[in-house]
Amino acid sequence: MSGIDVAKRRLRRELLEVRSRLTGDDAREVATVLAGRALLLPELAGARTVAAYVSVGGEPGTGALLEELRRRGTRVLLPVLLPDDDLDWAEYEGPDALAEVGRAGRLTLREPSGARLGPEAVTGADVVLLPGLAADRAGTRLGRGGGSYDRVLARLAAAGAEPALLVLLHDHELLAEVPAEPHDRPVHVVVTPSGAHRVRGRG
C-alpha cells in the first residue's frame, strides 16, 4: 500500500468519525442551506440533466436540492449500485419513488425504482454531483474509496463528456490539501454551507 493510500485511509476515518456525531437537526439544516447555495450556481441554473445522488448517513443532505431541481423541470438521474460496484442510473421521480436497498456491510442506500438507463446515461449530464468526504481548493476530492465514482469519471473522460463536476461538503471538510493520485480528476466547484468555492482555473 502506498503512502498516499495510507494517508487517504487515515483521513477517511477521521472525517467519518466527525460525521457520525452529527445530529438529524444538523443534517436538515445543512441540506436546506446547501440547496440554496447550489441552486444559485449558473451550472445548475442552465442544466437540462443533472446526475446526482441520495445522501446517506452523515453526508450533507441532497433531498431539498433534488426536489427543487425536479420542480424546476430539470431531469435528475440517480445512481443504482451494481454488484461489481459500478453505477447504473434511473430518473428521479420524487422521494416516494425511492426504495431502500441494503448492502452487506454497508449503509442502506435509497435508490430510484424506475427503469434502468444503463451506466452510459451519465455521459449525457450537464452537471454531475459527486459524493465526497473532503476536497481541497485545487478541487481534489476524497471519496469513500469504493471506486464507483472513479469509474463514472473515467466513463465521462472516455466519452469526451465534460459536465460541470460539483461536490457538496460540510464546511470543515474543505481542507488545505487532500492526498492526490495521478488519476484523480478535480471537481470544478466545492459547495459548502458557507458558500460555493470555485476552483481556480476551472470553469
Notes on the protein architecture:
This protein is an alpha/beta fold and 203 residues long. Helices cover 30% and strands 23% of the residues. Helix 2 runs parallel beside helix 4. It is globular, with a radius of gyration of 16 Å. The mean pLDDT is 91.
Key terms for this structure?
203 residues; seven-stranded mixed β-sheet; EC 6.3.3.2; alpha/beta; ligase; single chain
Short description, anyone?
30% of the residues lie in helices and 23% in strands. The chain starts with a helix and ends in a 5-residue tail after the last strand.
**How do the SSEs run, as a string of H and E?**
HHHEHEEEEEEEHEEEE
For the largest beta sheet, what order do the strands appear in spatially?
A: 3-2-1-6-9-11-12
Helix content: 25-40%
Helices and strands: which structural class?
alpha/beta
Indicate the overall shape: globular
Mean pLDDT across all amino acids: 91
In total, the number of strands is: 12
Helix segment tally? 5
Main sheet summary: 7 strands, mixed
For the termini, the CA-CA separation is 34 Å
Query: Beta fraction of the residues?
Result: 15-25%
Q: Uncertain segments of ≥5 residues (pLDDT<50)?
A: none
Could you tell me the radius of gyration in angstroms? 16 Å
What does the secondary structure layout of this molecule look like, with pairings?
Layout: H1 3-20, H2 24-39, H3 42-45, E1 49-51, H4 63-72, E2 75-81, E3 87-91, E4 98-101, E5 109-112, E6 127-130, E7 134-136, E8 141-142, H5 148-159, E9 164-168, E10 174-175, E11 189-192, E12 195-198
Helix pairs in contact: 2-4
